[in-house]
């Protein structure tokens, strides 16, 4: 942990670095970075003895690199980041950066429970090559995580981060929705560029887009299941677990939405709903990793306490893909 004097020094140094870093990211004079596009949230491969398998990670990235993704999210929820040590989280990001072309954005999950730990992890993620930090809401004391507390938290992180910050709301995991009024306030910060919203409430996504329309602020859908609807209300892309196995199809849905081919987009979206639900809220990361094995990637085991699927669950998972024509 940083002592008060070191903390003050880091704060001053990062503020000086911030202007040059954000300037380098700007897409135009006075504009923030453009994060629009599709991002698969990369899973963390483990060996049979629960060690991070960096070789399989690199193999998966090379295969995923054949699709027109804007970039990759690393150490998000699907990366099992709560089960990794701090050094493992940083090493995973280091390896991903080494394997990715420079034109692919690397959004690294740097959220921790305390503001100070989040700042330290964000700075470290920047040092190992992250282009932006995706910061999940602190949630252990969720009863006290009101708008004021969250605005203070994210403002402090964004003030001290040498890379742009993306807000991350995932109520299924945290039990906490980042309030819309807090998002609107935070959208005015020069180093906060957008939000990944995984709640699935399209009216909320539309409201955030509407309320932040005068800011240079972008919204990413947090799942392929509501990607079309999110584009329709103004989102600019998505972080989609399903893109780890159906990357071409998720990118095709993006293209259909962006070119106004809504009828074809609707047909494709319908065929993605059940598979997406299966690898997210129904069977979670064990389901996603099992599906990756079927599609020629390395899924492998999860870290305990997550368990592999039962035979019945695996059969149900397969049915969600075969009934929609994907297996």
State the CATH topology. Answer: TIM Barrel
User: Which of globular, elongated, flat, extended, rod-shaped describes the shape?
Assistant: globular
β-strand amount: 5-15%
- Give me the Rg, rounded: 19 Å
Q: Output mean pLDDT.
A: 92
Helix content: 40-55%
Side by side, the strands of the main sheet go 1-8-7-6-5-4-3-2
Distance between the termini: 49 Å
**How many discrete structural domains?**
1
Q: What does the model show?
A:
The protein has an eight-stranded parallel β-sheet with strand order 1-8-7-6-5-4-3-2. With 327 residues, the protein is α/β, with parallel strands linked by helices. Residues 1-29 have low confidence and may be disordered. It is globular, with a radius of gyration of 19 Å. It has one domain (33-271): Aldolase class I (TIM Barrel, Alpha-Beta Barrel). Strand 7, helix 9 and strand 8 (237-239) form a beta-alpha-beta unit. The chain is built from 13 helices and eight strands. It has helices at residues 4-25, 54-64, 86-99, 115-127, 147-160, 171-174, 180-186, 202-211, 227-232, 247-258, 262-282, 284-294, 311-322; strands at 37-39, 71-74, 105-109, 132-136, 165-169, 192-197, 218-221, 237-239. 45% of the residues are buried. The protein starts with a helix and ends in a 5-residue tail after the last helix. The active site is at residues 168, 196. Catalyzes the final step in the metabolic pathway of hydroxyproline. Homotetramer. This is 4-hydroxy-2-oxoglutarate aldolase, mitochondrial.
């Amino acid at each position: 942990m940083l002592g008060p004097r070191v903390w003050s020094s880091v704060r001053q140094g990062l503020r000086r670095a911030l202007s040059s870093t954000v300037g380098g990211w700007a897409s135009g004079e006075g504009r923030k970075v453009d994060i629009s596009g599709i991002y698969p949230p990369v899973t963390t491969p483990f060996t049979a003895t629960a060690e991070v398998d960096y070789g399989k990670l690199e193999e998966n990235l090379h295969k995923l690199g054949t699709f027109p993704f804007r970039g990759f999210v690393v150490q998000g929820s699907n990366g099992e980041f709560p089960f990794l040590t701090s050094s493992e989280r940083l090493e995973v990001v280091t390896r991903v950066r080494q394997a990715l072309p420079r034109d692919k954005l690397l959004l690294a999950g740097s959220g921790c429970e305390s503001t100070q730990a989040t700042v330290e992890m964000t700075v470290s993620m920047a040092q190992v090559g992250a282009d932006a930090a995706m910061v999940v809401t602190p949630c252990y004391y969720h009863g006290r995580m009101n708008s004021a507390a969250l605005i203070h938290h994210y403002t402090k992180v964004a003030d001290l981060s040498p890379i742009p910050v993306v807000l991350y709301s995932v109520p299924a995991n945290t039990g906490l929705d980042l309030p819309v009024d807090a998002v609107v306030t935070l959208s005015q910060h020069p180093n906060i560029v957008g939000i990944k919203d995984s709640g699935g409430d399209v009216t909320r996504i539309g409201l955030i887009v509407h309320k932040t329309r005068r800011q240079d602020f972008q919204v990413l859908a947090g799942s392929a299941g509501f990607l079309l609807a999110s584009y329709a209300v103004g989102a600019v892309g998505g972080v989609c677990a399903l893109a780890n196995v159906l990357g071409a199809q998720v990118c095709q849905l993006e293209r259909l939405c962006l070119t106004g081919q809504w009828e074809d987009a609707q047909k494709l979206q319908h065929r993605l709903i059940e598979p997406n639900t299966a690898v997210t809220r129904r069977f979670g990361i064990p389901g996603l990793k099992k599906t990756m094995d079927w599609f020629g990637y390395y899924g492998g085991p999860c870290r305990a306490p997550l368990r592999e699927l039962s035979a019945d669950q695996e059969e149900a998972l397969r049915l969600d893909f075969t009934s929609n024509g994907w297996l």
